[in-house]
Amino acid sequence: MSVLELRHVTKVYNVRGAGQLTALDDVSFTLHSGQTIGLVGQSGSGKSTIAKILTQLETPTSGEVLLDDKPIPRRGRGLRKYRQQLRMVFQDPFASLNPYHSIRYHLERPLRLDNVVAKAETEAEVRWLLERVRLVPDAVIDRRPHELSGGQRQRVAIARALASRPKILVADEPVSMLDVSIRLGVLNLLADLQREEGLGVLYITHDLATARHFSDEIMVLNQGRIVEHGTADDVILRPQDPYTQELRAASPDPERHFASMTSEFGGK
Predict the structure, then answer these.
(1) pTM
(2) pLDDT tens by residue, 193-221
(3) Hey, what domains does the chain have and what are their CATH numbers?
(4) If DSSP states are collapsed to H, E and C, what string results for the chain?
């Protein structure tokens, strides 16, 4: 079992002409393998900054990130090993996939870079990954991203994230750019993979309904600070912080919203 931990992480940006902007302010939380935490907040609350720090696209101004009680190495083999254990599913599946390369290439590349399987087993592994995300290998393996639907592209992006056999998955608004008709299928896929693979998942979203139904715990982020953290039911049904209460009041009823998605699109 792996444990990912943020300890008192603060991120401050220097903005030309405007001084300093605090994107994160003393953020701490722990994510275990086999657990899903929903990170909820409006645009600009700091959600994506957390994702960038976890994937080492940004470094904290202060505080630290640890995996299994060890600080993340900043370079070399240690950093590469960390990135193999933590993968990200981005918001826009079209932008995150290279349009010039086939789906086969997108999945073969992490397998080779991280030496996941022997060269002779690469083809079988690629096909297995596509099957894991409920795609028919022969139908997509030699196609390019623009030849697939948005839902298919996001499934490929999920398969690519799984290729390195990670312990932690960071999903940054993974369905916000998909048609409503296919969102639930992708979310159900993520939930099934989380259970089957024992993944730790940080699910970043602004959607309270899906956060409740796909998360064990929910953290609410406001202006770079975690203002509420508890079980999904407690945070959504019995919010304590005024900001969480405002989010809850301004959102469609999570029960009805999720129930309507399940009913309209057939659930799992």
Answers:
(1) 0.89
(2) 999 999 999 999 988 888 988 899 999 99
(3) 34-59+82-265 (3.40.50.300)
(4) CCEEEEEEEEEEEEECCCEEEEEEEEEEEEEECCCEEEEECCCCCCHHHHHHHHCCCCCCCEEEEEECCEECCCCHHHHHHHHHHEEEECCCHHHHCCCCCCHHHHHHHHHHHCCCCCHHHHHHHHHHHHHHCCCCHHHHCCCCHHHCCHHHHHHHHHHHHHHCCCCEEEEECCCCCCCHHHHHHHHHHHHHHHHHHCCEEEEEECCHHHHHHHCCEEEEEECCEEEEEEEHHHHHHCCCCHHHHHHHHHCCCHHHHHHHHHHHHCCC
